[in-house]
Amino acid sequence: MDINKIKKAHLIGIKGVGMTMLAQYLAARGIGISGSDGPEKFMTDPVLEKIGIAVKEKFQPDNIPAEADLIVYSTAYKPETNPELAAALAGRARVLSLPEAIAQIFNQKYGLAVAGSHGKTTTTAWLAYVLKQAGFDPNAMIGAYVPQLSGFSLVGASDYLILELDEYQNKFRFFQPRALLLNNIDWDHPDFFPTPASYEAVFIALIKKIPKSGFLIANFDDPKIRKYARANCPGRVVSYGLSESADYRAEQIRFDQSGQYFQVKYSPAEADGQAEDLGSFFINLSGRHNIANALAVIAAAVELEVPLAKIRAAVGEFSGPARRLQLLGEFNGAAVIDDYAHHPSEIAATICGLRERYPGKRLLVVFHPHTFSRTKALLADFAASLSAADQIAVLDIYGSAREQQGGVHSADLVGLINEKKRERGEAETAQYLPAQAQAEQWLRAQAGAGDVVTLMGAGDVFRIGERLLI
């Protein structure tokens, strides 16, 4: 696909985050965009409105402009149940799935992919911001709104394209990265990957795609990445982490309410144990996981020959993407935080980060489980992670477009959380509140000065915060 020859693109399912990301990128390249989706309100609506796209809020064949020379569809939809997609596939225009369309753009550039189970969005946005501030004029596609980049994507004059690359449905198979940042490998999406081994296999295959002239930035705090990186990567492997074996490592870590401070030491294997001190770094973001994300960005930027002073400045300026430990405001004297965590490891990291940022504060969490298959497969791990909060409300499970029911209930999770609490001699403080309105009422009655309210999940749980702050 020659993107320079496309004049008009139509996106089916345009309100999804990935579709909005692509729409913003194509529009910035001067391509006319139209799109369709359901009538439900999405967090992407303001971005689409700003781009100037009038979204058709019903799927039907006559939404497709006759002059469209590219049609892209979300993989959430099938032609059997979506008449607009069926008509598109029966027509003459080029029709691509979202991952295929992005891959055709990515593979024609110096594609630097950011992959892993957790931290992809933050790391992608962070690296894009550093390169932008350093004058590299990068392209980027990111799976969240990034205030400092004014959207989900960047269009630049350089050949660099920084992409958040999602593993679900093995989208990796379409992509040929020149370089890769790999944060972690932690079994997820059990509806598509039935076993941890099947999940790990797609990451191994992705590592093998890196050319000899390319590089892998690998988190050596992750045992699976340590196992697979050097054994499978044809290119240069650059490691980072808190462990002594990492090329880039953070030391002398300290934190306060403004952020985190640490020293970065660089000691590649060929240096025979002699470490170079790269100096002190500051980051605005909370949690040890964000120190790891920062190290990945620093390592990648050094590989791309960004001057260290520019790396240090931009790393410290970055304020994060939306819905990642995002402070929305205050309600009754309580801080209201929005976070996208929807996997047990992410929840544990978020709660740990909040404890560091707000020591001694009472933590009230409203959790919106995302997909029945994930909730069922990781139920005990969800309970263990959430039990670290002081008060927990669990909403009904947010089903994806592909599954609306299945073998587990939020009440099961609440029961296990309280069981964990009892085992530690603590009060049972988790409860099942089916609807957002009930959780909002609970927070209005409970939250007060000095508390930290956290709205957590991949769905639209953030809307509770919006209503609290009206």
UniProtKB/TrEMBL annotation:
The chain positions of domain Mur ligase central read 114-301
Q: Where in the cell is it found?
A: Cytoplasm
Tell me which GO cellular component terms the UniProt record holds: cytoplasm
Question: What residues bind ATP, as annotated?
Answer: G116, S117, H118, G119, K120, T121, T122
Q: Can you cite a GO biological process for this protein?
A: cell wall organization
Top-level taxon of the source organism: Bacteria
Domain Mur ligase C-terminal, chain residue ranges per copy: 323-459
What EC class is this? Answer: ligase
What Pfam families does the record tag this protein with? Mur_ligase, Mur_ligase_C, Mur_ligase_M
Q: In which pathway does it act?
A: Cell wall biogenesis; peptidoglycan biosynthesis
Keywords attached to this entry: ATP-binding, Cell cycle, Cell division, Cell shape, Cell wall biogenesis/degradation, Cytoplasm, Ligase, Nucleotide-binding, Peptidoglycan synthesis
Function in brief: Cell wall formation.
What is the name of this protein? UDP-N-acetylmuramate--L-alanine ligase
